[in-house]
UniProtKB/TrEMBL annotation:
It comes from the Archaea. This is [protein ADP-ribosylglutamate] hydrolase. The keyword Hydrolase applies. SUPFAM superfamilies: Macro domain-like. It comes from Thermococcus aggregans.
Length: 188
């Protein structure tokens, strides 16, 4: 499924983001970049082989780029793709979405928007053309999947008015089920 917003395309795909051929992939991180489970663990493992080593690299990058040992919603940290370079991935952009625990409101939505926008703006700054996102906050953080998908589409549309180098934004869904659910939500 594909949407065109000016010079920007928003596409929904199914697959494993650690092998997805985009110049930048986004990690649904926690604020300390601990990469303990879910897509964060998968990305750390695929990048460095050793998850603890990638956590060390991420925390060091966070100190250099943010000057703190945690990130807020909207703040992002960039680390190299390492072994994922074989798929054409250059950067991992770490962002933190809201914790929902099954609930959804305007505040959660704003935090998710900030998390998505922060990563999109950083990709623009890096001169990236193609960026791929997982369904941030729809896993361990328990935000309603449909709302996450809708918020992605809205945020990408908003970003299209300021986008410079970014031309393609992918939402990469891991399972066939979630992919099909997303198509329904977005009206496919
Ligand atoms: P959060 O804590 O932000 O909810 P999770 O890692 O638990 O983050 O999940 C975010 C989404 O990423 C979930 O929908 C999950 O199914 C998905 N996911 C997990 N592994 C991968 C992967 N390798 N590629 C793409 N998506 C993945």
């Amino acid at each position: 499924m594909e949407f065109e917003f000016g010079s920007l395309r928003f596409k929904v795909a199914q697959g494993d983001i650690t092998k997805f051929p985009a110049e930048a992939i986004v990690n649904a991180a926690n604020k300390y970049l601990e990469h303990g489970g879910g897509v964060a663990y998968a990305i750390a493992k695929a990048a460095a082989g050793d998850v603890r080593e990638y956590i060390r690299i991420s925390k060091e990058a966070m100190r250099e780029q943010i000057g703190r040992d945690y990130i807020e919603h909207g703040e992002v940290v960039v680390t190299p793709a390492m072994k994922m370079e074989q798929y054409g991935i250059e950067y991992v952009i770490h962002t933190v979405g809201p914790y929902c625990g099954g609930r959804w409101d305007e505040d959660k939505k704003e935090k998710l928007k900030k998390a998505i926008l922060g990563a999109l703006r950083k990709a623009d700054e890096l001169g990236v053309k193609t960026i791929a996102f997982p369904a941030i906050s729809a896993g361990i953080y328990g935000c309603p999947f449909e709302e996450v998908v809708k918020t992605f589409k809205e945020t990408v549309e908003e970003f299209s008015r300021e986008a410079k180098s970014v031309k393609e934004v992918y939402l990469v869904l891991y399972s066939r089920d979630s992919y099909e659910q997303a198509l329904k939500v977005l009206g496919g």
